[in-house]
Design a protein that fits this description.
Shape: globular
Radius of gyration: 23 Å
Number of domains: 2
Distance between the termini: 68 Å
C-alpha cells in the first residue's frame, strides 16, 4: 500500500477501509465506521455553525431572524462545499487542509490569548471566572495564560512560517504515466488563494480593533450579562 495514502483523507477512506476488509464480516464494520464519520462530521458542523450564528445574533450586527440567518449560512457553506466534490476536489481539500487549518488558527489563537491576558487583563479575567464559577484560577493557570501559552503558540507559528518559506509547498497529484502519486509544487495562483484564505481568517482580529479605535463603527453588544459582570468587576476593583 502506498505510504502517501496514510495521510489526509486517505487515512480514513483508504487505510481504514483496507483494514476493515481483514475483520470478520466486513460489511457490518464498514457501515459502523462510515456512520461514525458521518456523525462526527455533523457534530462538528453543528458546533461550528452554532458558534457563528449565536455570535451574530447576540451582536445585533445582522437584523434578520435566526432561521433565515441559519438558512443563508448553511446554503453558503453548501455552495462552497460543492468545490470539493469536483474532479479536483481532493486537491482543494489538500490546499485548505495545509493552509486554512494551520497558519490562520495559530495566528488567531495567539492574538486571542494576547487580547484576553494583556489587553483585557488576566486579573479581570480571573475575577470573571470567579464570578461565574465561584472558584479562583490557581497560579498554574495564570502562569500558563501569561507566559507558557503565548510563547508556545508564537514558536509554533514561527516554525510553520519558516518551514513554508524554506522549501516549496507541494501536494501529491496523480501521474498518468506512472499511475502513482507524484509530489508536485503548488502553482502561483494556488498560493495566492491560500494566502487569501489565511488573511480572511485573521482579518477580524485587526479590523475590529481598527473600527473600535478610530470609532468608525460602534460594535458594542447590548448583553445584560456582560454589564452585570463588568459591574461586579468594577466594585471588586474599587475595594
Amino acid at each position: 500500500m502506498d505510504s502517501i495514502a496514510a495521510e489526509g483523507t486517505g487515512l480514513a477512506f483508504v487505510v481504514f477501509t483496507e483494514a476493515i476488509l481483514k475483520f470478520p464480516f466486513p460489511p457490518a464494520w464498514s457501515v459502523l465506521f462510515f456512520l461514525m464519520l458521518l456523525s462526527l462530521g455533523l457534530g462538528s458542523m453543528f458546533g461550528t455553525l452554532e458558534g457563528v450564528i449565536t455570535s451574530l445574533n447576540d451582536s445585533h450586527l445582522i437584523t434578520v431572524t435566526k432561521p433565515v440567518l441559519t438558512a443563508v449560512l448553511c446554503a453558503s457553506a453548501c455552495l462552497i462545499g460543492l468545490l470539493f466534490s469536483t474532479r479536483a476536489g481532493q486537491y482543494w481539500v489538500a490546499l485548505f487542509d495545509s493552509f486554512a487549518g494551520s497558519y490562520a488558527l495559530m495566528c488567531v489563537a495567539f492574538f486571542e490569548v494576547i487580547a484576553v491576558v494583556y489587553v483585557y487583563g488576566y486579573r479581570r479575567f480571573s475575577r470573571d471566572i470567579e464570578f461565574m464559577t465561584g472558584s479562583t484560577p490557581g497560579q498554574y493557570w495564570l502562569i500558563t495564560w501569561r507566559f507558557v501559552a503565548p510563547i508556545i503558540m508564537a514558536v509554533l507559528f514561527t516554525c510553520s512560517v519558516v518551514q513554508c518559506f524554506s522549501k516549496a509547498t507541494t501536494y501529491y497529484a496523480y501521474d498518468r504515466e506512472t499511475t502513482k502519486q507524484k509530489e508536485t509544487e503548488y502553482p502561483i495562483w494556488a498560493m495566492f488563494i491560500a494566502l487569501l484564505m489565511v488573511l480572511l481568517a485573521i482579518l477580524p482580529t485587526f479590523s475590529v480593533w481598527f473600527l473600535r479605535y478610530f470609532k468608525i463603527w460602534k460594535l458594542e453588544a447590548d448583553i445584560p450579562a456582560c454589564f452585570q459582570i463588568d459591574l461586579f468587576v468594577t466594585r471588586d476593583i474599587n475595594k
